[in-house]
Amino acid sequence: MKATLWVTRYDARPCREDIASRTGMTMIELAALSEHGAHESAVVNVAPLLRIKKLVKRYGPKTVLHGVDLDIPAGRVVALIGASGSGKSTLLRCVNYLEVPEPGSEIWLDGELIGQDARSTPPRLLQGAALRRQRSQIGMVFQHFNLFPNLTALENITEAPLAHRRATKAEARMQAQALLDQVGLHDKAASYPSQLSGGQQQRVAIARALAMKPRLMLFDEVTSALDPELVDEVLKVMLQLAQDGMTMVVVTHEMAFAAEVADRVVYMDQGRIIEDGPPGSILRNPRHPRTQAFLKRMLRTG
Amino acid sequence: MHLNFSVWLTRWPYLLQGAAISLEIVVIVLLLSTPLAMIAALGLGATNRAILYPMMAISWILRGIPPLVILFVAYFVVPQFGISLTPLVAAIAGFTAYNTLVVAELIVAGFRSVDPGQHAAIAALGLPPFRAYRRVLLPQALPSIIPPYISYSTDMVKGTALAGSIGVLELVTRANQVILATNRPFEILLGIAALYGIVDAGLMGLQAAAERLWAPHARR
Amino acid sequence: MLTSCVKWAPLAALLAFAGGAEAQSAATATGPQVSIDLPKPWPLRHLVATGTLTIATTGKSAGVTFVDESGKLAGARIDLWTKLADDLGIKPDFVVIDWPGVLPGLAANRFDIACEGASWTKARLASPDFYMTRPLEVAINVGVALKSSGIATWSDAAGKRLGGVKGEQELKDLLAKAGAKTASLELPGVPEARLALLNGQYDVYGTGMQVAQTLLKGEDGDKFMILGEPTAVDASGFCVNKNEGDLAQAVNVLLAKYSVDGTMASINKKWDMPDTTANLAKLGY
């Protein structure tokens, strides 16, 4: 039984009120747009699911992100590439406020300001339950899996839904089993992380992130810590996820995966976005010399 | 030198009572200081400096002073402020104060030994703090807390001898009295060494059991 | 065993004098019957615990204050304190605590009365931390050595390693007698001091006559000897809480009474302690 429980959610076509609330447009403006022949789903694409505005991050005197702007429409897969230290992982961690950006930076998810209280001026940092609720809408998968070693694969997956009271114990277990089936680990429910291979652990970690039915998934170099022969099983799960319509931001060194799966490739260097476009043009015909150098290096080593 | 253990025939009830008092001190102090240490550990692990710095100062002072001095303060100085404690209560209070901070530091170190990635995962999933501690952090910190905790408790069993200096008739004090009355130091000392050995062996058995209980994922 | 020690002339004389004095004091007890009317219970207003005489004792002095086979405190001072509490109309409560804790505890208002017999010294008599009662006994402090050490006189003891119980006047007297500035070994109590001496970890143990005699009578006693001349002969009494002038007064009155009515003599006799009444008389007590 292949679970598509969560697929329907973010594939649903939004109604006009919904679009209005997401874009901040008035109903009159929307009606006008509609009269000009714009389809509602196109309007939604105007207002992206994830909007990153003027994102600045500093560690002490060192600025690692220099006012990055990035919009990602719903259902898109964006591959974030760049040399280590380019700020791509930091950018990812700022999206769900694992790293707190500098004041003035804004992260919007589906019309909601993340990590800050939009009602106060200047916006105060969100804490506690409000921040936890926002984070639960963003799934994150880490380079080193970060599974809870004291819990079984199944318990790792049910932990968040139970903590957020999203499901009863029985429902959570059923959903977790469905997710395990989906990532190809139907027989590993009772296994502890230490009993699983790296690729299996990473697939459990993806299932764990999906259990909260997130609107957005963040992947932070999820295959870099894996033995080469285990990379494909993880990429396959991610490909399936992309085909099912999940919005994904993928920090990766897997150029082949970026070329095949991503709708867009964003190249970052020294805390700035240097190039942004379809994988075909970025990966095959990079315009910026630094992108060219980076890709040359990647092709040589990768 | 010929050993003659017949002194134990008449003196054993008195000495065993001393062992019971020593054990009583250890048990009560552990029961009191362990929950207190958990609270103190929250202070020592706090990010708020208004909590962290005073806690660090208290910890530094209490752990830096010899336990004997803390006992003297509990028994001789505290009464100056109108609270008069019996020797046993003063000893328990003094040991508890010292032990709380020692165990708190053990707990803080145990939690620090948990992989930072676990905190990232907890934050990313939006797990509430109390649940995260109970389900994820505590079970992972315990295996590194329990062994030094038991080893420290074993030290404490021996440390109770200090209570004799403020008038608690614990095992060593009684042994000294019996040595004085009988002039059979070696027989008495060997006997009480055996008593301490039994108590410590019990604690070490507890440690082994605790390690099995708290580390199901590490067993494999 | 005292008389068997040849080099003991001055001490023997002291004791002989003490023995003779018993008859003498009995002889002077003639003339009109004098009696005093003592309050009972004594209205003591500053006791540490109401209705209780809180007594600190080391429980580590054979014959004086020690733990008997049944685990109870016993000894000459325990009897005397019990009698005192009884005559004061209150209950005795013994706190067993090592000597280093005794005077600090008294100063800290933990005890009403303490010291099984603290030597009268300038410093103690003038101490702001406690009162000293009238003397109970004349304390003879001596040096004890192993027979095998070859130390027989104080001239033999010159340059030898001296030791005793930390903080005791007996140790200070030994150092003064031998002209030494510091002890080579200070131990926490009598049993430790005895063992260390037996082990040859130091050479001369400065202690009280009573303790020395117990060592000679006990296990391995034949290995010890008492040096021929005392290190000091002084008076010793109890220490009383500085807040309790009324108690000090009451104890002084009762101790005077006990020395004339035979209570003191009978307790000392029961525990095989020397009677020093006559020597006390030399000090006017």
From TrEMBL, chain B:
CDD domains noted in UniProt: TM_PBP2 (cd06261)
Signal sequence bounds: none
GO molecular function term, any single one: transmembrane transporter activity
GO cellular component: ATP-binding cassette (ABC) transporter complex
InterPro entries: AA_ABC_transptr_permease_3TM, ArtM/GltK/GlnP/TcyL/YhdX-like, MetI-like, MetI-like_sf
UniProt entry keywords in alphabetical sequence: Amino-acid transport, Cell membrane, Membrane, Transmembrane, Transmembrane helix, Transport
Biological process per Gene Ontology, one example term: amino acid transport
Cellular compartments annotated: Cell inner membrane; Cell membrane
Membrane topology annotation: Multi-pass membrane protein
Segments crossing the lipid bilayer: 20-45, 57-78, 84-108
Claim: Membrane is one of the keywords in the record: yes
Superkingdom assignment: Bacteria
UniProt record similarity statement: Belongs to the binding-protein-dependent transport system permease family. HisMQ subfamily.
NCBIfam families for this protein: HEQRo_perm_3TM (TIGR01726)
PANTHER family the record matches: L-CYSTINE TRANSPORT SYSTEM PERMEASE PROTEIN TCYL, MEMBRANE COMPONENT OF AMINO ACID ABC TRANSPORTER
Listed name of the protein: Amino acid ABC transporter permease
TrEMBL record, chain C:
Region forming the signal peptide: 1-23
SUPFAM superfamilies the UniProt entry points to: Periplasmic binding protein-like II
Gene3D superfamilies for the chain: Periplasmic binding protein-like II (3.40.190.10)
InterPro entries from the UniProt entry: Solute-binding_3/MltF_N
The keyword Signal is assigned to this record: yes
UniProt domain Solute-binding protein family 3/N-terminal: residue ranges: 52-275
Keywords: Signal
Coiled-coil residue windows: none
Protein name: Transporter substrate-binding domain-containing protein
